[in-house]
From TrEMBL:
<keyword id="KW-0804">Transcription</keyword>
<dbReference type="GO" id="GO:0003700">
    <property type="term" value="F:DNA-binding transcription factor activity"/>
</dbReference>
<dbReference type="InterPro" id="IPR046335">
    <property type="entry name" value="LacI/GalR-like_sensor"/>
</dbReference>
<dbReference type="InterPro" id="IPR000843">
    <property type="entry name" value="HTH_LacI"/>
</dbReference>
<dbReference type="InterPro" id="IPR028082">
    <property type="entry name" value="Peripla_BP_I"/>
</dbReference>
<feature type="domain" description="HTH lacI-type">
    <location>
        <begin position="4"/>
        <end position="58"/>
    </location>
</feature>
<dbReference type="Pfam" id="PF00356">
    <property type="entry name" value="LacI"/>
</dbReference>
<dbReference type="InterPro" id="IPR010982">
    <property type="entry name" value="Lambda_DNA-bd_dom_sf"/>
</dbReference>
<keyword id="KW-0238">DNA-binding</keyword>
<dbReference type="GO" id="GO:0000976">
    <property type="term" value="F:transcription cis-regulatory region binding"/>
</dbReference>
<protein>
    <submittedName>
        <fullName>Transcriptional regulator, LacI family</fullName>
    </submittedName>
</protein>
<dbReference type="Pfam" id="PF13377">
    <property type="entry name" value="Peripla_BP_3"/>
</dbReference>
<keyword id="KW-0805">Transcription regulation</keyword>
Length: 335
């Protein structure tokens, strides 16, 4: 397949390749007439600059890489929108990869981003990531990186996340205020900080309100609907079922919702249900789901802003920053 180059444009106009290059970049030494001719030929030949070739010259492209667990997850799609808006205004395009919650795929995504000489990376870890040493290559190659939402205590570098502990604490406190005393938690994996922080918020709320922590009411899994399904099945099979379930995120809560409905139980009359992340579908089910808003678009923009600063100033000239955003409790009829 024919791909036009600067040389092709230069040959057609009888100019040097360097003159064409400067014309395409609006260099002040090139006349407006020449710039117009060059751009007309470039448009006719469907010329596009080779970002990889340019990357070899500059040691980077004008592309920002994003690695997320699942693009279909509303939190991540919304965060990506925030990232893209800021990146576009700064003259960058984005390249998105999803790990599909798989550690090995996350490592492949990272190698692909480094090979393509991205200007910087924004990363949210997969639920199966235990070891984060594969990110050491970014420090060695001085590639800017910001981690967002799902982070790990062994990571170095800037991070943007929400106050997961306080968000969970406020939600469980709400359940207690509503009279629920036998509150279960379908938790996330302990290797990712958001799972630990939300479980810790759940535990602290119970302790502070004088309730006993029953370990049989804590079921650990992942962040998908199926994890909510399995968790709810275990909890509803207990000799004394819970009167409320707090789920680590909304997809998990939706999985639990289906099991509760299938077993003929009423929400919230027989059992209350709450999630975390304010997925749009949580407001559409009946009854609507009580949840915690993470302000995902804002998290994406904040992460992109930190990354753009590193790209502009250089990683050695910017100190790592950890931004912790506030959450908002959204009370609906499920509780």
């Amino acid at each position: 397949m024919f791909r036009a180059t600067i040389t092709d444009i230069a040959r057609e106009l009888g100019l040097s390749a360097s003159t064409v290059s400067r014309a395409l970049h609006d260099h002040p030494d090139i006349s407006e007439a020449t710039k117009t001719k060059v751009k007309e030929i470039a448009a006719r030949l469907d010329y596009f600059p080779d970002s990889i070739a340019q990357g070899f010259k500059k040691q980077r492209t004008s592309t920002i890489g994003i690695i997320v667990p699942e693009i279909q997850h509303h939190f991540f799609s919304s965060a990506i929108s925030g990232i893209e808006d800021l990146a576009y205004n700064a003259g960058f395009t984005i390249m998105v990869c999803q790990s599909n919650e798989d550690y090995e795929r996350e490592k492949l995504n990272l190698r692909a981003m480094v090979s393509n000489r991205v200007a910087g990376l924004l990363v949210s870890l997969s639920q199966s990531t235990m070891d984060v040493s594969h990110f050491d290559i970014l420090k060695k190659r001085k590639i800017p990186v910001v981690f967002f939402d799902r982070t790990h205590e062994d990571l170095t570098g800037s991070q943007v996340k929400v106050d997961d502990h306080n968000g969970a604490y406020q939600l469980v406190s709400h359940l207690i205020d509503r009279g629920y005393k036998h509150i279960a938690h379908i938790a996330g994996p302990s290797n990712i900080l958001i799972g630990r922080e939300r479980e810790c918020g759940y535990r602290d709320a119970l302790i502070d309100r004088g309730l006993t922590i029953d370990e049989s009411l804590i079921v650990r899994g992942g962040y998908r609907n199926s994890d909510g399904t399995h968790g709810a099945e275990k909890l509803l099979a207990l000799p004394k079922r819970p009167d409320a379930i707090f789920c680590v995120n909304d997809p998990v809560a939706l999985g639990a919702y289906l099991v509760i409905k299938q077993q003929g139980l009423r929400i919230p009359n027989d059992i209350a249900l709450a999630g975390f992340s304010n997925n749009p579908i949580s407001a559409l089910i009946e009854p609507p789901l009580t949840t915690v808003d993470q302000m995902s678009y804002d998290i994406g923009k904040s992460a992109a802003a930190l990354l753009l600063e590193q790209i502009e100033k250089g990683v050695d000239n910017v100190s790592p920053v950890i931004l912790v955003k506030k959450t908002k409790l959204i009370i609906r009829k499920s509780t």
